[in-house]
Batch of 3 targets.
Target 1
Amino acid sequence: INAEYMGLTILSSCHSSFMDRHTLLESPNGRPKRGGSRLIGLILLLTVIGCILGTLIVVVQTRNDVNDLSQHLRTSGKDSIISGHHLAASAYATPYVPPRKYQYTRGTCWDFATVALIEHQYRLQGIEKKYLNPEEYLQLSEQAYGNVILKLCQQYNDVCLTPGDKVALNSTSGGEVHLLYEFAKQFENAVLPVSVCPYIKQKDDSSCPNIDNALQNNPLSFTVDAFSSIYDIEHIKAALRQSGHALGFSTPVWSTDHYMPCTDENKDDPRCKAPGACKMCPSHTNYNAKCCVTISSPCYNMEGEFWKNHELLAEGGHAMTLVGYNDQWVHKDGRIGTFIIRNTWEDGVINFGDEFTKETRARGSHSIAYFMNEISEAVERIYCPNSHNPRNWFQCGVEMKDLNKIIEDCHSTVAIHSAEIAVQPLQLQCSDASYGCKKQSGVYYYAINNTHIYDQLYKMCFLEYDENTAVGKTVCYGPYPLDFFSIFIEPIPSQVKKNSDDICGYYAFPYDIAREARAKFGGFWVNDYHFTFSDESYIRGKKADNKDYSLIGSSTGKQETIPKTVSPFPNPHVTD
């Protein structure tokens, strides 16, 4: 909203109106009609006075509205730093989103996504009614929610029979956000605080020993007043803006491929030597090679961005929580425009399965403020350092050819101090020797550079330094997807900084991939719930008789926020 522009528009309209009146008082030869001069003067005076007063009223009212909205956004948002640049509809984030949680290796994303919607609206209504302080939030129990859903699905099996889901088979590995709508009546008093049943990490464990007693004494109650499903990008954005609360976000997930040509340069690469691995290169690669090896990547990178390289290869589905969008966000692969999603995946390098089905995934996430373009990468790394992300490893010895100078630079006080200030790991170590690095005590690695080779595959070079012998050399690995280096190289433990659970946990989901995923697989939609919580659901509200409020108290926490900053660098000092 531009108050000055609106004012000038009114003045321009007034000028046009005056000229029209002046024309009416002219005779056909262009001279004023008899007695017209006095009338023109009177009309001119009244018109000017009216236009000035009207313009001042619009400008003042518009400025007041903008100031009120700007102040609301600055004080109501989780990060408390949303600026006037995001007053327009091109970017929006819901305020007071509770901290992220982890589903670990269980298939309970649908459970977490649903509970997150309930937690968020409970918090928003509590703050509005002065029952909660702005920094307070209530954690609800995903364990208990899943337990109740499974019991209901046994009773109403036809409601839960969604292809690919397992809730109808008495398993929490696969469900839907919309189940709360089907079971709205049964859940009016059946959502419990997390202290009743903390989440169990073990696969498909839905037990909740204290649930029956807790349900009898549960003060939490709410109604589902409205429910809708939305499918296209612009209507999803409008629903988020208009509701002011988080929405359920359901999407297919996929893998994406890279193609590495088997040429003379990498003919000794084990991947090219594996029987049957090297197949005809796709025509779009133009590698001029006899065959290519396919290297697979997940649908996300360690920057917390969903992405693709070539086509989408279906893997399954995932439910998350939509909290914002930014039309101006530029992804690392150049895509513009994103949804901002709260995810339930752990950050770092995560091992799945057992010794026979081992799978390692490298993940990272960011804050809402970061994806809203409200803070710099330097400030972001204080809260979401993503220490395992190779993009964040401090590089030393860059563009140096003399080995001794590289060793000196990587061990210098300047490099050590700069890495600490930047919150970037400097000293690395080998975590998996099967990739050719040395997993030995006293052998460390220092990142020098990473170079894009082809098809989003990189080579990364390091200083390998043995402190036992004071001998070093440069080594290079790859080509691999950039995130893949974190599978076998990691920061030493003292340089791993944990991402803040209060602030991090958010992913960027590009609009164009959302459209493509829906067109190719279906299964992409957003659910909008509207809940109303009773006053008796809050400790500071109307107390209900014979209800146990202690469980609410023990499940209530306080959330850290990002302080407002005007500098792109952390902790700026203004001198006298």
Note: The chain is about 30% helix and 20% strand.
Target 2
Amino acid sequence: QTQSTWGILLEMHKDDDEKASMNDGGTLGQLDVDGLTHRLSDRSCARRLIISHLLTRWGDQMWSFTIPLVFIILYPGSLMPASLFGLVTTLSRVVFGAQVGVWVDLHNRLDVVFLGTAVQAFSVFISGVLLLLLHTLVAFAATTPFDFLTSSLCFVAILLSSSIGNLGALAMDVSVEKDWVPTALPPSMWADVIAKMRRIDLISEIAAPLFASALLSIPLFGGLFGFLCVALLNCVSFAPEYILLRSVFYARQPQLGSRDKRSHNLSESSQRETNPQPPAVMEYANRSRLKAFLQNFQQAVKTWWSQPIVLVTLAFACLWLTALNPHGILLTAYLKSVHVSDYRIAIFRGVGAVSGVLSTYCFPPLSRKLGLRPASLFSICFQSFMLILSSICFQVAKSISSDNRDVSDSLYNLFFCFVILSRCGLYAFDIGEVQILQISIPENVRGQVNSIESVLTSAMTVAVYAFGVVFSDPADFVWLAWISTASVTCGAILFAAWVIIWQFHTHPFETDHAMNMAHHHAEEHEHHDVDSDVESSSRPVGISEETGRVMREEAVTASGHYHRRRRMMNRKKYQQIDEEALASPS
């Protein structure tokens, strides 16, 4: 029976020293911090990454839910402050997202995590203090002259602080989820870890606002006691998040700490032959600020454009241009304007989140059965089909007269069901898209490529709000529904085109990346029950057995071509030496 490529690598790197450092807990890494030595298995590292993600998402969801409510308390009867807050924080990602990606690629991973958590904590603290000051100015406006200038400066400072904190959150998302996970963990764990992170996102989207609303309902200090509790909990959560990530960094020091070594040791010729590297640090420091910003943005766009997953990121960005989101502001506002009860809206949002959670359990076995790319294609096509059906039901329901109330209600219920089912396809495709990016993007440019994707998704979010302004009449919501359906369908077409293009082209980097990851983790892999381990980790999760076989055959073929070229070059070289020897008078 032919051994898999990963099994061969595992056998090649057995020695007595590695056997001494292994036990039944899995792959072990050394953690030496402040003179203390600990051992962390792959499962332990994955658990710490997941817990840190939980702390991040829980705090972000509580804070994003609390800020608009505080603005409504301070400015009753006006949605302008809350709208400006959402617009400015989203635009900050569009404008500075590429700069953040370049910065992530230039710096040590632990420094990125430290600064990302510190910036978020500082932003929450400053925003909390400024909101308290603004509340004080508004509260005493009835007895003292209202200082419009001071209050306006406080509001602008809150927007600035929140935008900076949003960029810190972007740096953490790009660094941890899309760089640390594929670097620190073996490929066999990627799908499960990403799926659990998506479940955390959905559960936090439901539970964190409920927890925050319970705190805000405490009638102390004019309702600000709950706000202070949310701000305090959010600030405190960044400390354990950094501690967990720091332990993973030192436990996986050879992997996570290898970025600087690679960037300094690669020659200029190899940098040009492989993927483009980030700008040199000295050049980056000496350029003017505006010129540096524009050149870094251009560098990030060029790096993103040179990758084979451009169509994948464009397809994913198209999914963000949609108003048919159970948790979205536009759909919720429309349902409220047509007198749908709060109870039905709450059920609609809750069931939509539950459908997303279920999809995170369905996608991993589906990708193992069909393969990563076919499963992802099926997911995005399923979402597009469900939204087409929902838009048709909505269009027909709008055209039915009020006399056929029962038929109209039935069509609206079908509209709700199809929108909920579309969330299954969305979150399933999200998991597949993250895995594709983890496999396909080189380690040294992950920050730039993922930041450009974040810029695209944020731009699509801004476009949704812009369409909401244009079609602000509830009677025109049908146009928003069809625009959303067209955008998602366009994303499905782009991804299908990428899958077709990928099938007819060889991608040596993807195969080499999987082989390098196999080699990298085989050196530290446990030696207990080798045969079962090799069989279970013979390919990255999400790659079917047939696809894995094809990838291995491509690698073997490429290796054969390489050795044949070397033999031909050596033959020509020796032939030339023989001819020179014969022509020599001696």
Note: The CA atoms of residues 7 and 534 lie 5 Å apart.
Target 3
Amino acid sequence: MKAAKQSKADIEPVVAELLALKAKYESTVGIPFGGAPVINKESNKVREVENPNEKKSDSISKKKRSETEAKSNDAAVDNLITPRAVDYSAWYNDVISVSDMVDQSPVRGCMVIKPWGMGVWDLLRAELDERIRESGTQNAYFPLFIPKSFLSKEAEHVDGFAKECAVVTHHRLCKSPDGKELIADPDAKLEEPLIVRPTSETVIWNMFGKWISSYRDLPLKINQWANVVRWELRTRPFLRTTEFLWQEGHTAHASAEDAIATAKESLDMYASVCEDMLAIPTVKGEKSPSERFAGAANTYTIEALMQNGWALQSGTSHFLGQNFARAFDVFFQTETGERELVWATSWGVSTRLIGAMIMTHSDDKGLVLPPAVAPLQVVIVPITKGTGPEHDELMRSVNEIVKSFKSQKIRVKVDDRQNTRPGAKYFEWERKGVPIRLEIGPRDLKANSVTMVTRPTGEKKSISIDNLVNDIKSSLSEIHSHLLQQAQDRLTKKTFRVESYQEMKGMMMNEDDDESKEQDQQLQRSTIGFYLVPWKCDAKNEEAIKQDCKATIRCYPLELNQVPPAAGVKCFYSGEQATHMAIFA
């Protein structure tokens, strides 16, 4: 293939297949492919067998070929995807890499979101923004920098974020005395340090104090699309990074009831967007007091379940009570002329939702995208030699198909690269997660049909060109329904009702048992998930469980906590009367 000067995209799938066969050979036979190595008994190192009849020039040429092949193999290995069953975390990172969603940043803990990843976020953001504005919320923008004194005004809030804050202390650089490097200019120290925005409650409530004076100013609903910085020690693309993108809604109200209703409406919106856009079912719930947002009177959450049983907090909405209004002296005059503190909410989702989507739907072949957030919903691969009347006729038909798709707002691309074989194109778009691939050649055109392949199932079938637009729209809808149902079935299957702590702990398994580690891992995959338990709210017991088996309360499901557990229902841990039904994970 190299001799024929075929492209890297053509070669990579073949190399990947050969490397997989090579690895299988070596694991079966027990020796490296190409023969047994020679062991130097003194150094116990593998060395190559030298051929005494080989000329020096041939030896040098062989060495260069080996180095080139090694580099090629390394590149191919970099493009392989670790199977989920082998290492779920590595699989996640590999899928993000091969689908070209992000790249490494020169700044530790940050990521560069590439066009394909940003395309997903843009579509999700557009839908969210429309729904937020429909709720009567207006967009605004607030400073990236927050005076340190602002965070100090709300004690719980500052305690919650103090360890994650990035702090600006100087406003200028200068050369060091020896002229070899740049340093913070000692004469440019700020009078008050500035915090790089970890969240915006404090700066927004400072402004609310200027904007609110009467009940006529309420409710006040503001949303901000922004980046925030939280200095994380252990990061993972989309799921937890030092800098990330999000929206944060902030509202002020005349009554607690109105504020709580808004917080719950925001949570409903998030759950709906997850289902409608990302095909992710979630559990809506209330956080335990220990897990609430810093400074909140109550925190509501949507919790999602990943393929391997991991729980992922996917969005939160907070009833802030009057804490921030009190900290920033935000009062309003009531209709009766009295002066009262306003009631508040805040709510937000971030690029973490993209990570949730990847871990919910993708497979060992690469990314799987729900159609609603796919930058391209359909890719068309013409099967043509690239020249002549037959090619021209085919491309005219392809262009007509594209035109009909775009008229129906179907996001489509024609992959007509002449230097890439069809198989390599299939491989690339499959890894990028495009929901539908259409293949069309001269024979298809004569039969007035195209071949359609759907990404999630790999189903391949021939469909008529005459009704192509309607068939594609139906197929996109079916793909979404399939992904959502698959995730819902997983959520149902992996939500376990348990009555005792020992039962839950046993299901979570002991990862340190090396004797049956492989068996444990197999069992773990089938018994790790959500554990629904009767629970008496107790912070000390909650912490004890966390220390003992690392399980935490994800939420008190709203649906199951409309009334307290019946008399006689005992807490699965303490044996006392239960106050809630709780989900641990």
Note: The first strand starts at residue 38 and ends at 40.
